[in-house]
């Protein structure tokens, strides 16, 4: 079974090099910038794509812009105040414009700040190098994809196996570039594949501990629980700017996921092999209903957007696996990006409930 190393530390070492441009110069990517920036200004040059901009007003009525930048490792927001050169320049930038940003960077609980900022548009070979993405992220997401396909190849129920295969064949490329969220966890191009891979590995392990759980249903439920995010958190074929669709805005990923699975289910019922499923037990309609329930209930509570509550063992397990993976991803990000208030205590990062404390190191037996 393919998987990422299990010995990865919660607190990653501080990195010093990221994207390499066409001339061989090193630049930190966004994830690395967040790791390194702190209270004291540090000068870094960063390549990033303008994802979006929104107009705001201060309490005194002065306008300012919130500019969101992204690359293959994540995103950040930067305020452009009305008296700053960036405010006027940003009006000439289209969403999706790739820029080289050189500034004195700091970071606090509100995010990154850039002083003495200079910028230029990326062009030619520098632009091509930027859009190849971060090599580490690409490699990690390839392993995640292989984890998913390897685990799904072990499904026994022909209906669920065919449904999963049909989804990956029809929507695989879109799935592989979708984010798991707009913020908080796996909020990057390809983040959904990483999230689903981790959840699927966790579900497989939990089914070994609780063999009463329906393993095929669990793995299929993990694959489809966030499939509506293909329209809620989409990315174009190239680029790192997360888009929006009317379907995602007006319906949300849970109704979209239910609708997609219903469509795919009816598609596979037209296949020649579906005739043999008429005598399968449990009946196909019951299997479909249980799978839809996992999608509908995976947020676990009405106030978090689920139209129903988990009512089966698999639904309860899936909800907690989803929440666990999201929370632990937030913890990793918080350790990487938060400032230490005092040694060993990290500044609280939304939406985690409290300040983080440095974790206990692994015990290394003497050699």
TrEMBL record:
It holds the Pfam family HD. The keyword Hydrolase applies. It comes from the Bacteria. Its EC number is 3.1.-.-. GO terms for biological process: rRNA 3'-end processing. Transmembrane segments: none annotated. Keywords: Hydrolase. Residues 188-336 form the HD/PDEase domain. InterPro entries: HD/PDEase_dom, HD_domain, YhaM_exoribonuc/phosphodiest. One of its GO terms (molecular function) is hydrolase activity. This is 3'-5' exoribonuclease.
